Amino acid sequence: MQLCMQYSLFGSILTVGAMIGAITSGPIADYIGRKGAMRFSSTFCAAGWLAIYFAKGALALDIGRLATGYGMGALSFVVPVFIAEIAPTNLRGTLTTVTQLMVATGVSVAFIIGTVLRWRVLALTGLIPCLILHVGLFLIPESPRWLAKRGRENEFETTLQKLRGRAADISFEAIEIKDYIETLERLPKAKLLDLFQRRNLHSVLIGVGLMVLQQFGGINAVCFYASSIFEVAGFSPSVGTIIYAILQVVFVVLNTTIIDKVGRKPLLLVSASGLVIACLITGLSFYLKVHELALKSAPMLAVTGILVRLQVFSNDITLFIGTFSAGMGPIPWVIISEIFPLNIKGVAGSLATLVNWFCAWAVSFTFNFLMSWSSYGTFILYAAINAMTIAFVALLVPETKGRTLEQIQAAIR
């Protein structure tokens, strides 16, 4: 039990740092800008990786994971918000989903090279994306909506024109953004309690609800302990993890090509349905193994359960939906970047991101205990939560495809 506790604490400490990052990311992004917040956050990531590389004991490793988690938690909110604020309406979903594609790619690369590199060298590779982000931030503009909110009129129009192209007519979009911000400026500065006022409650419920359901569906446990799951199921951990990593990227790529065509809500519904099936199949695999039934087929069922992919044909469009990566992974982040009014976006976004990382911590911390209690029961529990997701999305989540951020706010009030 003590070993299980230590393993769970170390495995989940990254999410503790992410929770701290989530709390501070919104106010920081509102005060120093989206670019400033990204630069600040990536500095913490770099410091964390260096602390891990030079670690001489457990304390330094914990501090490194805490710092890296802080940067990850802050970036997980700021980056989708920045992309949503600079993207044209018809590409907003695709471009925001690219964030999750990069996350999936990074995780997958780490999974794969982690099978051949020593952990200290692996920590050094974490500095590469931090450096790329720092350099890249000098080459991109600030969010025009943030500039308008700060009263930097000339920079706002110049930036918006640069983003839309020299030949583009930005007059209508600029007026719409300014009118919306002027309306927001007449409202008092947002506080935490303001999130629970009637005019904001719907968007907060949607954003926070999706974050809770995304994590309690069990994906973080699968991600953190993928190799352990395969080993318990009797399948090669290295082979299973590499397959998992590669397919994760493939299906996020497919998601980015269809999200602005199909819409957010249909993808969420199909993805959640796929997660229910995946969890049930994985639970069946562990049930067969525990009761020594069909031992030869059980390992493959575990792989199928985690990697299960659904293929749907509609209007000559082939739509591949893979459990988490195709919907419940990226789309909640797309929606929280769209759903909150600009005046509460910092506070509400921090709350949603905090809830997400707290749930991630809870899932990663309890997973080992749940597996000790019942391996198949654990995945049946996750299946039940994913079934709740289907009902939540069907009843409460609006479709935001093809709408400006200002139109979305008008629709949900």
Automatic annotation (TrEMBL):
Q: Which PROSITE patterns match?
A: MFS, SUGAR_TRANSPORT_1
Indicate the secretion signal residues.
none
Q: What is the species listed in this Swiss-Prot or TrEMBL entry?
A: Populus tomentosa (Chinese white poplar)
Q: What is this protein called?
A: Major facilitator superfamily (MFS) profile domain-containing protein
Q: Does the keyword Magnesium apply?
A: no
* Transmembrane feature ranges: 6-24, 67-87, 94-113, 119-140, 204-227, 233-254, 266-288, 317-336, 348-370, 376-397
Location of the Major facilitator superfamily (MFS) profile domain: 1-401
Q: Tell me the protein family, please.
A: Belongs to the major facilitator superfamily. Sugar transporter (TC 2.A.1.1) family.
